[in-house]
Specification:
The chain is of the alpha/beta class and about 350 residues long. The protein folds into 2 domains: about 5-65, Ribosomal Protein L15, Chain: K, domain 2; about 85-325, CRISPR-associated endonuclease Cas1, C-terminal domain (Four Helix Bundle (Hemerythrin (Met), subunit A)). It is about 50% helix and about 15% strand. The chain has 11 helices and 12 strands. It has helices at about 50-60, 85-95, 95-125, 130-145, 150-170, 190-215, 230-235, 240-255, 270, 280-295, 310-325, and strands spanning about 5, 10-15, 20-25, 25-35, 40-45, 45-50, 60-65, 70-75, 265, 280, 300, 305-310. A hairpin with a 2-residue loop joins strand 2 (about 10-15) and strand 3 (about 20-25). The two termini are about 35 Å apart.
Length: about 350
Amino acid sequence: MDSLYILESGAYLRKDGDTLRIVRDGRVIDTIPAAGLTQLALAGRSSISGAVLDFLIHNRIDTVFLSLDGRFRARLLLDEAGHVALRQKQYTRLADPAFALRTAAAIVIDKLENQARLLFRRAGQLQIAELRTVAVQIKALRDRAAIVKNLDELRGVEGYGSRLFYSVFGLLIRNADFAFTGRNRRPPRDPVNGMLSFVYMLFTNEVLNGLKSCGLDPYLGTLHEIAPGRPSLACDLVEEWRVFAERLVLTLINRKAVNSGDFVYRNKQEQQDGGLPVEMKPGIARALIAAYRTQLDARLQYQPTGQQTSVRWIIHSQCRRFADSLENEGVLYKPFSIPR
């Protein structure tokens, strides 16, 4: 096992010889081999023992702490060797307004193209004219993103494109148990938004792993401004993978792999007491992770090499491609586009 997600609220992770045991209410609910673990994610009020913490540090295991709704909270910071020269390049190049704008525009243009492509495809499949109309509008925003004068204007274009996309996202849902009336988060207030946020987080975490392996600073990006606790560069580079997350959520909903009973719903009083409006039960969260991992193992053609390779490898290759754009003058970062 390379990645372990602890999703049960109140769970406690302890080490016992060569295994890790997940304990809740004094009972061992799962046992996992410690060997081969490369990443640990703990959600909500999960905790770890001192022996586990020592094991994580000694084996340099990437450890992430998440909120119950899947938002990034913190990361176990391990001493990084090398990569100083690359980070110097990153700080210098991204401080250049012209370079930062060109890079951010490439990311936004690709995101808009992916959104439009998804809507065009589903418009043909479902015969819904409104999907095609919005796809045309989003496609037109690509041209506008290419001529903006500054990052604030570009962020406005990107935000408008997202609002257009989410305005018709509910039409893509073909399951009467679920409805989508708009994007909401922090925290999500309905199951669809909860699943979207969770899968976005999974992809962001994989991008973070890629950035870490390259030696880039994940907290300095271009499209997303610097903010406390936000890995802005990871948020930039995950934009090209959002449509993969959206397709995954739609597939699970439309194939009825999830149902309304897979969620806990809380009233206003329960929310005032600290509960989330809606929360995935551990079983469906694990199913989402399993579907996500299957998607990461899927093989696609990677345009720069022309070879078929896994989505996970492409994500990491794109991080290295971004590093190349920083180190080599005249090289502009090119995001990954979904296959036609």
